[in-house]
Amino acid sequence: MTEHYQYQSRQIEKNPAKEFRFGEGRISCYLSFTLSVLSLLAVLAYLYPAYLTTAALREVYDAEQLQQVLKYAMYFSLFFAVLTFVLNKGKYKAYGLGAITLTLIGFALGGYSIPIGNVEPKELSLGIDWLILAFLGSVAIFMTMEKLFPKYRDQVITRPEWGIDMFYFCFNHLAISAILIFANYHASHFDRAVSPSVQSAVQAMPVWLQVILIVLAADFVLYWEHRAYHEVKTLWPIHAVHHSVEHLDWLAGSRGHFVQVFSERAMVMIPLYLLGADESALNIYVTFAALQAILIHCNVDIPFGPLKYIFVTPQFHHWHHSSEKPAIDTNYSAHTVLFDRLFGTYHLPGNYWPAEYGTTVRLPRHILGQTWYPIYRWKQRLGKKVS
Ligand SMILES: [Zn+2]
Ligand SMILES: [Zn+2]
Question: How far, in Å, from the CA of 334 to the mean position of ligand 2?
Fold first, then answer.
């Protein structure tokens, strides 16, 4: 069946109105507005660190150094807002004015000179620090890669529904402490399965071997969790939200029903908890997993060479998002292609890429509709059974 399938190439229409070109005021408008929002959020995080930052992340960064970055962000926001006024004749000026207002509110609240003291850690907080750092990191790494090695050069940054995915991106990062509390609580149910002899055997291994073991164990759990989301009819409407995105890029992978976001972390926490690997191995895994999860959705075409037969790559995961027949319910793995190979769900047709992305049945194109979608589908199925 797959051999006879006619693969098509994807058509992306040029959208000159949405392209970023120098001298039009559009770039400065987006820069000033983004910087003003991020700066105001950062000022609030410095004001109420116990409620608006994450304890685990605070250990990693230097809050005083980041305050220097905040200083530049605030001044650059004002600079780009003024540039927007100079360059643009009309529609972006409102954003420029908005950016100036937000930055001035930031200055009024204390700006970049709020004293930093000891923070009384709260268990449940909003991860504003995690949101800002992840956003800046993603733009620096992945948006840059998409510009340097694009798969679809004509796909613009503000492609259709990017705002929806930005909402999901913000939610997933702000909710980080709630997600971790839930995942740890879930894993603690497996207390009885903890084996001290297994854990000490794992800890006796070199770190690189521990990392390989964690990657494979996590991949196995994620493979079956993901496959269940596709193949168990009741679960699919939850996961369909992730698949409703029709343009893949660094932001697209953020789209996901909150039930899936929470359950995925909770499931992957089980093998991590049982293996009891060293913290250094866990840190390497978490960093690798976080970067790979974004990379595989990116609009990039990098020659991975033989690595594409070992690791999940953008081409492999793009096929998972395709609505074309040979690709439906394939490529479930998150890290390596091993389990798709083993369990017969592997689909990587040479150098072909999908022509179509999304679900065969279209989902609502707004957040509330997507959040409600599983309930809507369950009610529909129950109705059909009753009648
Ligand atoms: Zn899926
Ligand atoms: Zn995906």
Answer: 9
Nearest ligand for residue 230 CA: 1
User: Which of the ligands is closest to the CA of residue 227?
Assistant: 1
Q: pLDDT confidence of 117, banded at 50, 70, 90?
A: confident
Q: In whole angstroms, what is the distance from residue 243 CA to residue 328 CA?
A: 11
pLDDT of residue 12: 87
Q: Does the predicted TM-score (pTM) go above 0.90? A: yes
Section 338-348 average pLDDT: 97
